[in-house]
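User: Here's a chain of 514 residues. Predict its fold as tokens.
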Amino acid sequence: MTPIRLMRAFATVGGWTMASRILGFVRDILIARFLGAGAASDAFFVAFSLPNMFRRFFAEGAFNAAFVPMFTRKLETDRDDAQNFARDAYWLMASFLIGFTVLALIFMPVLVWIMAAGFTADARFDLAVFYGRIAFPYILLISLTALISGMLNATGRFAAAAAAPALLNVVFILGLTLAAYLGWPTGLVLAWSVPLGGVAQLTVVFLALRRAGFRMRLRRPSLTPDLKRMLIIAVPAILAGGVTQINLVVGRQVASFTDSAISWLSYADRLYQLPLGVVGIAVGVVLLPELARRLRAGEDQGAREAFSRGMEFALVLTLPAAVALVVIAEPLISVLFQRGAFSADDTAATALALAIYGAGLPAFVLHKVLQPLYFARGDTRAPFRYALVAMVVNAGIAIGLMPVVGFLSAAIGTTLAGWAMVWQLWRGARGMGDAARPDARLFDRLWRIVLASVVMGAAVWGAAQVLDAPLHGSARGLALLAVITVGAVSYFGAGALIGAFRLSDFKSAMRRAR
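Assistant: Prediction complete.
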């Protein structure tokens, strides 16, 4: 795969992820309008977080770390063997998760207590349990979707897997719209939208898989030698994913003792997830099969080129986004969410959390770039050890600072733990040879990207000061658009002028992605 095709894949996944995140913003704007930041929204966000938490145990991170490299190797030598391996994995996962879902529905009160012990003192607890039992089957649907997406990505078909998440947000938006017009309970509609969205996601990737020539015909689950090897590789990644989820649980536990804090953190999380999803997830999804293929073929220089271009692509888009999230956090939250049940006080609290998350955004994205270096080699143990250290950092900061800064300690812990993880991944990759070393072009462009981001930050801050009154008035949407436009022009203008990137890089990537 040539570098141009690699950029095309980044653009394809990133473009579809951008569409999904924009729809996600529409969804969150509607949630903020109709639910605001209160008991019902807190309960829903905890209920929705449960299947999403476990999906990272069983699906995207841990599973892909083991499944994708093995499936890619088999695909290069024997397509039928690859299909049989994938079919065995599919039905083994399905049978396990059906049983797991049944247990989770029975013990849902325990799961809610683990996530948000602060709820036990009020009505949020019973509501979260009720919503959780409706939403939890999503874990089965999204995990099977992730498996099929891994197969599609390994064959170079990125579009369907990248587009599938948008369907969940479409279902949410339709549900919220119907609830508003028909008077249905908004929280209940949101809870039912989760499994319905999962059905839509699984359907679209399943159809794409059929078009790719693969069939997941029903078969009795069995633990084959290949699956045993996959599980041996996957277990450390599952444990690492578990450590990451412990970090999230710690944050939610801290927030659950402050009314509306879970909602504030969730709204802030959604905003910084836009660049993380568009850039970090896109690069991570594309890099893993590419590095696995290059390393298997002994093409260290090709792997180095892929890794360096992936990191360059990530930094070009992530650093300015991080600066913007810190500098104009309050206008962003105000324009997107402050209406209906979402008050100015909610805006102020959410903006503080967003600025803290923004400072960690480069770390969250670099994590996605560095981790494939390990997974492509079948090394899931080192990331697990690093995740343990990051967990200690997160828990120590979140719990230790809680009496001082309240719910913000959860955001601070997440950000600093992200940087601790990146430092360990970078340090551990030094012994991997040339394939893990950034090339001269990346080093040459890095300081230029940083400088262009600083220029953009100054321009955005200045524009926000000039437009301060409109940013808090009836024309705040147009005022924010003007501020963002100033930032984009200043960044791309300065970046092109000092050689941080070539505008033709973006044009060619987007043209080939269409």
